[in-house]
Structures
1.
Amino acid sequence: MVSVTSGSFVGNRTWFSEVVGGKDVVLRNTSALECLELFVGYLNEGHIDVYAKEQGEYENINYCIVDSFDNLDIVNIWDIQCTSVNQTFNDMLRDFDNIDEQSLVEALSTYYFRNDDSFSGLEIAPENQHVFDLIKDWAIEYHSEG
């Protein structure tokens, strides 16, 4: 079964609330960036990325199965569980070859400009620092290139 797409809703948070709100899942990666309003998302988006304790029913939800949410830094927005800014960035940097690079760079750029041209406050794990260093200049230039 396929869940509805974002095009049926006014905004992505409303979409997430309808599809995964109140459920035992945690938004992750690009979906978390959208919920955290660091990435605007895509027009008529159809996929949602979540951490879950078991496989769900929707074909267009990417379920990353975990035993527990105990090791995740989670925030709650509109009855939607979502990985925190630091958790999301570190997860995506750790799995850089398999993530939506566009969403990560745009989100880092948004973070940078919302924080007075600084990445201060971000807690990048040592094992992710090299990848962060490779893309941070691209993120800084992202919004100023237009």
2.
Amino acid sequence: MFTTRAPHGYSPQLLGELGTAELFVLSSLRLWFLSHCDRDHEYPDWRQAFQAANIGPLGTWGFDRLCRTVGTTTLRSLDVHWLHCARVGEYEACLLRTVGHLQADQLEAAEAALLEWCPPAATRLALEAAHAFATALQSHCLLIPVRALDTDRPRISTVPLGSLCLH
């Protein structure tokens, strides 16, 4: 199910290059996965940040369902990084792109991004959830820019369904 591994598959982005909305999404993503992967430690509840930002139940549901759908159906290793890692993982960058595309009404691009990680049926479920999340962020002026893809990024081999790796 969920495992840890040595670092690989970094996107070219550093945390210092991200805006507030991107950092909100990224830290929430990391906290969500850490609470499911590292049961030896207690982490802050990601939902507290959603409450503080006044993100309503639909946005909270969308984020949770998006993470659950991708985390349990993934065709590739999800490189979600530890909280203090200064680099953005490939999957983390993909999630930011997906939300940014949805906020820009680019459904096809959002779907294509998720298809890199999930089978088509799961992608449809993940898109519904991601759209609810993206809309909730947008209604609070938390806009995710669509950044250019790094064309030289390494490809990660296929792994068993539901695999997550933290580093």
3.
Amino acid sequence: MVITMMQLPPVIFKDSQDFYDDFAKKYIKHDKGFFILAPSGAGKTWFCNNQKEPHWIDGDQLWEQAGAHPDFRLQWWTGGEDTIHRVDQRSDVITMEAKLQGLWIMGASNFWLRPDAIVIPDWDTHIAQIKEREDNHYDGGATSDALEQVRAHIADIMKWHTAYDVPLFKSIEEAVNSLVDPA
């Protein structure tokens, strides 16, 4: 099943400090929050699942628990541009609040919130990572039959670099190191 814009549940705002406090119990809270933007298949989930200390939150986890993202099994990212934009805008609100709380997030959803860094892997590496995930431990996101959508998303992400001078990196590790240990 693919979810479309009209099928997205409506959102309301309320005081949700408890929501962010729950994440701060699981992840290290910092003086300054960060957001790394990278396309599907760039290695965000792998990095978050394999970090030695719980600093970085996989944005999909944050956004799904907040209700900004529908369940990944609904493949909302294939529901058309209007659906993607609506979900991305909802995700920006959650990301902004999480950053204000001192949390570090990496994800692929973004519409208007300026990221602190972007990651665009080498295309051949990126394709290999998507295929490896698809074949061995699919957990949502783009598959090898959606590479044109990935390319289009990369073009959108690159606008942050070209128009707003957001730092660009080839790997999640490079972006993380630049933000947390600037030379």
